[in-house]
Specification:
About 40% of the residues lie in helices and about 20% in strands. By secondary structure, the chain is an alpha+beta fold.
């Protein structure tokens, strides 16, 4: 028997040249998991693959620059732009898609706190899903705990905001995602989230309206049923006007 025929073949093994993005997509499809712009897909990325994905995005970004007829070889300003843009998207502005959520230490409500607590303003840095233009603004979070509520540190709210907003987002959906996450982590009697943001897809392009902002809110639990509590929260938001 020749040595050439000794090595068995594995039909299910991925081809050596398969792009890492294809492998990740296949895992998502096999798990029947959605991968919209504002979804987190970290659990489907294997160790070392984010670096390979960065290389893949760089190559494709270079193709975009070539199609825009930009001489990146001769122009010193754009010579490394493809790499910079790839790193910006994967490691910075859309990092919330590709990394696991921040570690959140939860403590029992030992003192049985049940008074309204407001955290904010927390800075929002995101981008719209439609044009990938920046969305910059602020968020205020109101919590009404109960004796069973998990207490988390104030800085952890900022980390959760950064993780959820670090993806291409639509503001209405982003606030709902954040509210769902905080409810899951803390289990309060009530939760209120208000977001106010400027959208560069409106000020930088399109109608180019510079002063317009979008404000929206999500109310959960007693904030939905208790109008007095809701008014108290909105009245106590510092410096929004």
């Amino acid at each position: 028997m020749s040595s050439e025929s000794a090595a068995p073949t594995n039909a299910s093994a991925p081809e050596e040249g398969t792009p890492v993005s294809v492998k990740i997509r296949e895992r998502l499809a096999a798990a029947r998991r959605r991968f919209h712009a504002n979804d987190n897909i970290a659990e489907f990325i294997h160790p070392g693959e984010l670096e390979k994905l960065l290389d893949e995005v760089e190559v494709k970004m270079q193709g975009v620059l070539d199609s825009m007829v930009i001489d990146t070889a001769g122009d010193h300003n754009t010579r490394n732009t493809a790499r910079r843009v790839a790193k910006m998207y994967l490691n910075e502005v859309f990092k919330g898609r590709y990394v696991h959520g921040p570690a959140i230490t939860e403590f029992p409500n030992a003192e049985h706190l049940n008074e309204l607590m407001i955290v904010g303003p927390i800075t929002v840095r995101s981008a719209c899903s439609h044009h990938f233009c920046p969305v910059i603004g602020k968020i205020w979070i109101g919590i009404l705990p109960n004796e069973h509520t998990n207490v988390i540190g104030l800085s952890k709210y900022a980390r959760l905001v950064d993780w959820v907003m670090g993806r291409p987002q639509i503001q209405e959906e982003a606030v709902v995602q954040l509210a769902d996450l905080i409810m899951e982590k803390t289990q309060p009697d009530g939760l209120a989230v208000v977001m106010e943001a400027s959208h560069f897809c409106m000020s930088w392009r399109g109608v180019r309206e510079m002063d317009s902002k979008m404000i929206n809110s999500v109310m959960r639990g007693v904030f939905l049923t208790n109008s007095t509590l809701r008014r108290e929260f909105l009245a106590l938001i510092p410096g929004r006007n």
